[in-house]
Write a structure and sequence with these properties.
single chain, about 270 residues, alpha/beta, seven-stranded mixed β-sheet, globular, Alpha/beta hydrolase
Length: about 270
């Protein structure tokens, strides 16, 4: 039996079909692959996934390498954006046609890397709470200190959760902080990849239509950074969502789903 090369990790994918029939041809449209961010779990996609499924979209929720509980990474695997993108590409090829990729934070970097290397697999890219830009200096200093000590301490976890989600109920806090329970062998290298960001030439290689969804109150990516990125290419669009921060898909899932749906419908139209 042929085996995948060591550089590619077999990923857990939660594949979901639309919850109800709709009166359009949307069920025949490509699936939407959702890629989570650093120290996160796929659980935080649930509100957005529900909206997309109710709108007639097929949704594939992907756990990035090492992020699914019980994952064992293959020998020789090194956690880089390129290796993660190659692993997601092995998921995307399961569909007969190009897929929509939506990535939050670090997942957005993986999405861009995939779209640049494998344009034939990608119908569109959506970046949620992410544009290629130097990392927030506070986040950089925090993460570097944690990497030196070899574990993520409680104070750092609390700072990250506050920056990403703001105020949460105790139940939601327990749910969303589970990403920090992953082995440091995954959190450390993936954190370095997230902090380094995409290679400088990656954005210009992406030929797929690209949407940036930005929370107006995002503390990790400023509105100015989002606007500058979008202004650099006619293929890019920006939707700024008020009353939301870094995790706009969790905070405002309905608004996020509407922005995505409108973008996908627009980007599939033939040119005039």
């Amino acid at each position: 039996m042929l085996q995948e090369p060591p550089a590619v990790a077999a990923l857990h994918v939660d594949m979901r079909l639309p919850t109800a029939a709709v009166s359009t041809d949307l069920p025949s449209q490509p699936p939407v692959l959702l890629l989570h961010g650093w120290a996160s779990t796929s659980a935080y996609w649930e509100p957005l996934a529900t909206e997309l499924l109710d709108a007639g979209r097929t949704v594939w929720i992907v756990d990035l390498p090492g992020y699914h509980r019980g994952d064992v990474l293959p020998p020789g695997f090194q956690w880089t954006l390129e290796a993660a993108a190659d692993s997601v590409a092995a998921v995307a090829v399961r569909n007969a046609s190009p897929v929509h990729i939506a990535g939050h934070s670090m997942g957005g970097s993986v999405a861009l890397t995939l779209a640049a290397a494998n344009p034939e697999l990608v119908a569109s890219v959506a970046l949620i709470g992410m544009v290629p830009a130097p990392p927030n200096e506070v986040f950089r200093s925090i993460l570097e200190s944690q990497l030196r000590q070899g574990f993520i301490d409680d104070a750092t976890r609390a700072k990250c959760m506050k920056a990403w989600f703001g105020a949460l109920s105790p139940e939601d806090h327990r749910l969303l902080s589970r990403g920090f329970e992953l082995p440091f062998e995954v959190l450390g290298p993936s954190g370095l990849a997230a902090m380094a960001g995409v290679a400088a030439d990656v954005p210009e290689k992406v030929t797929a239509p690209t949407l940036v969804i930005a929370g107006v109150g995002d503390r990790l990516r400023s509105p100015e950074q989002a606007q500058a990125f979008v202004a650099a290419s006619p293929l890019r669009r920006l939707v700024a969502i008020p009353d939301a921060g870094h995790s706009v898909h969790w905070e405002r899932p309905r608004a996020c789903a509407l922005a995505l749906g409108a973008f996908w419908n627009e980007s599939r139209q033939p040119p005039a």
